[in-house]
Amino acid sequence: MRFFVKVKVDVEKMGEFGQKLQSNQLDRSLIRSETNCFVNDPAVGFSIWEAESMDSFYRIFNSWKYYYSEIEILEIISANDAMLLLMKKK
After folding, report:
1. What is the mean pLDDT of the segment spanning 51-64?
2. Which residue from 5, 20, 37, 68 could staple onto 45, CB 3.0 to 4.6 Å apart?
3. Are 66 and 7 in contact (CB under 8 A)?
4. The whole model's pTM is what?
5. Dihedral angle sign, alpha carbons of residues 82, 36, 9, 31
């Protein structure tokens, strides 16, 4: 399963978050893309995560949630899989 993860960093916790990231205390094993941020709101970032299941995703992601004030998670599929789904609906 792949997930589009869009978050807004809690600015009050940003220092602690940066320390956790630098010391590798947060598991990044499911992240498949570099995190990118919006120029008009640099506290908002997004990345692609991949896991065997929703449970395995949340097992890792739950330790990250503390550092975010907003979270949006959407399951995503590849463009080829999307094309197949669209063709079936036609």
Report:
1. 97
2. 37
3. no
4. 0.90
5. positive
